[in-house]
Amino acid sequence: MSRAFLFVLDSFGIGGAPDAAAFGDAGATTFGHIVDACAKGGGDKDGLRAGPLMLPHLTSLGLVHAANLASGVKIPPSVAAPIGLWGAAEEVSNGKDTPSGHWEIAGVPVTFNWGYFPRTIPTFPETLIAEAVRRASLPGILGNKHASGTEVIEEYGEEHIRSGKPIFYTSTDSVIQIAAHEQHFGLDRLYALCTLVRELVDPLNIGRVIARPFVGETRQTFERTGNRRDYSVPPPEATLLDRLTDAGRTVIAIGKIGDIYAHKGVSQVRKANGNMALFDETLIAMDDAQDGDLVFTNFVDFDMLYGHRRDVPGYAAALEAFDRRLPEAMAKLRTGDLLILTADHGCDPTFKGTDHTRERVPVLCFGPDLPHGSLGIRTTFADIGETVAAHLGIAPGLHGKSFLRGTASHA
Fold first, then answer.
1. pTM score, two decimals?
2. How far apart are the first and last CA of the chain?
3. For position 408, what pLDDT does the model report?
């Protein structure tokens, strides 16, 4: 047997989704537009970074080749022949959100329609809020609209501290987010409230309820903490994670992976705050993983801190920081191991609004004994999960097709 390592660079799309227009995202390409912005000086920020985007290790794995294949951006590649298997994948799920992308990566596309909240003020049903207020003994709520997470805390945070009313808001995703102060409201109380709201929104088919704790005393000092917690509905059928744990394998979930799958099919949860801390935990998990195991990490900062905030310099710097550390992970791979780098959707920081963008995602594969070459464009993210399944020697699932025949042949 061998091991598998699946790294999701949250929101790192590469454009070209054939159905992007249906989602209002025609022309979006997270990677391509960051490259273009950096080349024109739009990625420069004093004390952070400057100049063209430099990702030598991701490029060596085929990132630029994959982006050119996916979207026709035609970024000049700095390597003629990538050292790994490279390609792109497009999503078939009915959403461009985190659960849809991750579930499909793990072999379970979302074929049903999520529930969403309208762009009205108030946005949430009156009966839902009334029941939450009654059962949680709240003095009321604040927000009750579509909003940016940082902006809504800046707008309502001081009133929240004075009144004790939590801040409810949503986005174009199927989600309710609840922000509250860690000390003044209480972290455990926030988690309990989210658990209650999770129960209340189940009939509405809402994908996630997210706890968004913050600290600080004024709008100038408010800051979200790393104690975010996602309360997701479970996937509708067994994912790659379930199939692995049912086969006696260990699935080590780093970051928010456990929350995304409602902790189904997860053997161990290891939390960390920030991409570099997540990378540190991942390296430890790579040392701990045994034959047949999966280490699955979500690097959330790309999406949460930079994509949604339309921060090109921040996104570029985070990519470069990740790229600098990538050789540390590659050095831990043994003969028979498989490393896959991909994404769950896009979040183009040059695009309109602040929401996710419907895009193809990169699929970059590397292992000491893997062949090199193009995987082409995969017609579902589920091919990624099925490739991991084939590599680790478990039976195939119901969706997707492996681009490897298994550990023995790697072909």
1. 0.91
2. 16
3. 36
